[in-house]
Fold this protein.
Amino acid sequence: MSDGKLVGIVLVSHSAQVAASVAELAKGLVGGGVEVPVAPAGGTAGGELGTSAELIAAAAASVDRGAGVAVLTDLGSAVLTVKALLAEGDELPADTRLVDAPFVEGAVAAVVTAATGADLATVEAAATEAYSYRKV
């Protein structure tokens, strides 16, 4: 990273609490004083379970530092909502990517990798690689 910009991370969950907790966990595991721009986008604007295009777009705008935005999602309609926003073309910052990764492990990998100053492709690869993390 030669320009000092960090990749932003958006965590989209059907639950505001889950999105916020995963963001807190991922940021907490970075350590070392690097403040990766991470924003949760959970639930609906009314505080219900679900997804909100408006909350996702606002979260993406809030973490955009010019190095791209990686969006990780939990379940089906969250994926569909992000895909719809990407298809619109003007709702999300330029160079926003939907990352195919497990939500918790992928979020941690994305944030830790972004903290190193890695580019968007490297952050996406680290998050995607989280699918291979074995627990037994």
User: Anything to note?
Assistant: The mean pLDDT is 94. The beta strands are 8-13, 38-42, 69-73, 96-98. Residues 9 and 38 are 5 Å apart (CA to CA).
